[in-house]
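Support reply, case 0932

Customer input (verbatim):
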Amino acid sequence: MHTLVQHMFMLPIPALEKLLRPVLVYGFLVLLLRVFGKRELAQLNPFDFVVLISLSNTVQNAIIGDDNSVAGGFIGAFALMLCNYLVVRFLFKHRRLDQIVEGEPAVLIRNGKLQHKNLARELITASELDVVARRQGFDGVNTLEECTIEPGGTFVMKSKEPTKDDARYTEIVKMLGELSRKVDALKK
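Our regenerated output:
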């Protein structure tokens, strides 16, 4: 029983090293994702997905070192979560630094026209963007007035024509206005 507990909770490397390893890997991965762009965060295709999944396995040993103990895993997970919490909290209080770290949104469609230079910079093809538009409920890129990819990889799209929900909302507001005028007329 003593050996089991020892293997699970005794650290073969110093605790400070267990804390520093995840912090260093965290910083490195944030830098990599910033350099290689928003595309990796948007997970546009199976290749990008495979890279993200493989990335976690690739840096695993850098995070845990020669330690397979439960305690080592807990310390590593704690260090990652704490590092992320502190970075997000710091960036929240320093908006300008947050913009520098995260980057700027990229306009992919403006006034209904594809922005080929921005698509190339983000390594997104027109057909990939078309797939994203269809996933978000649009009939394709030809129906979009504006499309932006945010620093976190989220696509923000605006249709050329009002959506069915927008049209229905406008119709309901119009009917409520007419109903309100009729009620006001009855009060007089």
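We compared this against your earlier run and they match. Two observations from our side: Residues 35 and 178 are 55 Å apart (CA to CA). The mean pLDDT is 84. Please reopen the case if you see a mismatch on your end.
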